Amino acid sequence: MNRTALVVGSTGIVGHTLSEHLVARGWSVLGLAREPVATPGVTPLAADLRDASAVQRTLKDLRPSHVFYATWSRRPTEAENIAVNGAMMRNLLTALRPDAPRHVALVTGLKHYIGSFDNYAKGPPPPTPFREDLPRLPEPQFYYTLEDELFAAARRHGFGWSVHRPHTMLGFAERNVMNMGTTLAVVATLARETGRPFVFPGSAAQWHGLTDMTDARILAGHLEWAATTPAARNQALNVVNGDVFRWKRMWTRIGDWFGLAPAPFTGEGVPLERQMAAAAPAWRALAARHGLAEPDLAKLASFWHTDADLGRPFECVTDMSKSRELGFREYQTTDKAFFAHFAALRARRLIP
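-> structure tokens emitted (352 positions)
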């Protein structure tokens, strides 16, 4: 059976990890991005999804059996997110030949349940655990637009689909700063090297409540499984590591890895954007002292993005029963996922 994957967004956390996973599993992999990064075993394709004619030219002679859509373009408002990201998905699906692919997978996330960037975590606490059969929120959201574009194209062309909803992602990708694992590694490194307190930046609800996360390696396996498992055809599926934790324990575990004693949590965290507002010179000096590969703090960490996750005012727990019942069995403890990510950063000389 032909197994040729088109990974859309191949330079992101999801796309990079998925591409490596599929190559290791014997797939032929095409990696589409605006600026592809060389990855062993992946054929790079360059196109901006906002340019319909460019996408047509790039894909006109290709017949991928499976498409994995793992990209988006952030805009200042949700209305703009809807317009731009909807057009990107539409341009991609229009450029595919009518006789291909067999399956298209879309990666979204828990904003499906929590709210768009405009309304993120601002409404009443959603029912937990999050289940795939919860109704959409009564607001416009670009995740919903992406789904609707996918569903409409599947009806027209007859391919199968799957929608994957991970929680906060853990994984590595070059030039990707919206990455909690790397952001916290930077924060911990600066605390160790400068003596600043390693203090939890989030809300009391996150400190004390249960939550979960998604290792990009788990998501990669989930994407392949759903794309090749008949029972998972035409399903929306949550995907997380499988464990739950409280940040009051995880913060200590992360501190231990870096040799830090966390500062006491007083009941109200100090957001990282405030903590790190003047940290760029300290990071540059640290990078020079240790010979690190990236001295520019802005190219490593995204403090606002991690603040959004850690500052949520309610508990966030994801139900994976649907995938388990359909046969997906992979599992990853989140503390070990953090540690693997930190080790990868150290191996790439991004932290000392």
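The CA atoms of residues 72 and 143 lie 10 Å apart.
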